[in-house]
Amino acid sequence: MTYREALDYLGSLETLGIRPGLERTRALLARLGEPQRAFPSVLIAGTNGKGSVAAFLASILRSADWRAGVYSSPHLVRFEERIVAGGDPISEQEVAALTSEVAVAIEAEERAGGEVPTYFEATTALAFLHFSRQRVPIAVLEVGMGGRFDATNVVEPLACAITPVSMDHMQWLGRTLPEIAAQKAGIIKPGVPVVIAQQEPEVLGVLRAEADRVKAPLVEAAACPTEPPRGSRDLPDPPVFSLTTVSGRRYDRLSIPLRGRHQVGNATVAVLLAEILADGRLPVLGPALDAEAITRGLARAAWPGRIEIVPGRPDLLLDGAHNPAGCDTLAAYLKEHRAGRRIALLFAAMKDKPAGDMLGILGPLASEIVVTALPVARGESPDRLRSLAAERGLRAMPEPLLDRALTTARAAAGDDGLVVASGSLYLVGEIKKLLG
After folding, report:
1. What sections of 34-176 are H helices per DSSP?
2. Cis bond before residue 164 (omega within 30° of 0)
3. Whole-structure pTM over 0.85, yes or no?
4. pLDDT tens-digit profile of 169-212?
5. Handedness of CA 269, 271, 274, 276 (dihedral sign)
6. Do the beta carbons of residue 210 and residue 165 sit within 8 Å?
7. N or C: which end of the chain has fewer CB within 10 A?
8. Residue 281: pLDDT above 70?
9. Residue-wise over 356-379: b if at least 16 C-beta within 10 A, else e?
10. For residue 394, which of 364, 418, 371 has the smallest C-alpha distance?
11. Cα separation of 137 and 168, whole Å?
């Protein structure tokens, strides 16, 4: 199997859609020799921010000379971004070879009367197989959707975390915040420490109850005070801050390259996870996971497509906000740090997202709105996005071709303005391809 054939094979599994459940993943991993048992792991769920937490924690581990594996989704430009070991994405040759093994196992399971796994389930098995072959000392795993029935939830983690929970994927996870929180809480394991980001009260109640039920030690990021730099009244952009954790440790002048005050919360969750790992949950394989490694790791973290600024005339801001909560976060950032600039919004979204609500949050901040198409079957049409904008009293210009849409948005912003591209990580990825 070649690299291209491997991607085509995995892509063919997307027709199966989303089918929550762990049975297919467990059966596939059993045929592959249980690769997920070859390394310890940290499991991170939530609605928004879980990828940022994973990026922060992986960078901290690398700064302590731990060659961590990272599994995340979706990718922006290349499939290999999903599976990284020690900072190095999986190679095309490894994708081809390991996908061949996964395909053989799937075919054997199908012949035995088992179900064919979904795209995400097969990709998760591929990641576990790669991490086991690479002998990573630990893997940081981002939950795909939900938690309780997500393919990543077959591991027995050393620690887990739940980032802010909000309304998303309601057709699979539930129609209320408590119902969605109950799905996220499914990653909480007996006796395994869990770090909880700041949450809505109704979410926090569900998570606390589950942790208490299974006797999982609970650490709440909301109990960790943060402060702006000495002499400053507010956080700079990107943030610099001091943090005191529930353990009593204090970190002065933590600097993070990811923009937005919400990233302070994500960084706090990562620091708390690092403290848990440092306090005896990992064998001594390298230098201590100390305050210096934590500070250095946060400063070196990278997570593209999240309030990422591409300088130019005009500047381009790329953000993968794909639900109302993410759009609220982006809007707060624009009001705080980009007020007064002429903004052109370049927007695209998936059909299963509340695109109208998202446009209602971001649209009023823009002088012009350009809506475009995504090259995936689930992408919403520009004409439909224009109608959704009009229902909210907003005028949007449809331009199906992304290169033309970007040119139109740049002209609308003017040389000294700002183009904000948001609504979908797929849009961010396509723009990155255009930019080379």
Report:
1. 50-63, 92-111, 119-134, 170-173
2. no
3. yes
4. 999 999 999 999 999 999 999 999 999 999 999 999 999 999 99
5. negative
6. no
7. C
8. no
9. bebbbbbbebbebbbbbbbeeeeb
10. 364
11. 33
Helix, strand and coil in the chain, % to nearest 5: 45, 15, 40
33's tokens: 């020799």
- What six digits make up the tokens of 91? 């190679």
pLDDT digits (tens, 9 = 90+) for 248-276: 999 999 999 999 999 999 999 999 999 99
For residue 91, how many other CB atoms are within 10 A of its CB?
A: 12
Tokens describing residue 381: 């049409």
Q: What tokens appear for 333 in the block?
A: 């950032």
One-letter amino acid for residue 268 of the chain: T
Q: Which residues contact 369 (CB under 8 A, 6 or more apart)?
A: 344, 345, 347, 359, 363, 389, 394, 395, 396, 397
- The rounded mean pLDDT for the chain is 96
* Residue 162: strand pairing partners: 45, 196
> Residues 164, 325: contact at Cβ < 8 Å?
yes
* Geometric angle at alpha carbon 430, from 53 and 143, rounded to 5°: 30
Closest CA relative to residue 22, chosen from 127, 115, 131: 115
Looking up tokens 């001091």 gives 242
- What is the Cα–Cα distance from 278 to 161, expressed in whole angstroms? 16
SS3 52: helix
> Which residues share a beta bridge with 88?
85
For tokens 């403290």, the residue is 275
According to the model, what pLDDT value does residue 20 have? 86
Amino acid occupying residue 336: E
Number of Cβ atoms within 10 Å of the Cβ of 233: 6
Contact call for residues 56 and 266 (beta carbons, < 8 A): yes
Closest C-alpha among 354, 377, 376 to residue 423? 354
Domains identified in the chain and CATH numbers: 3-300 (3.40.1190.10), 308-435 (3.90.190.20)
Question: Would you tell me how many other CB atoms lie within 10 Å of the CB of residue 228?
Answer: 16
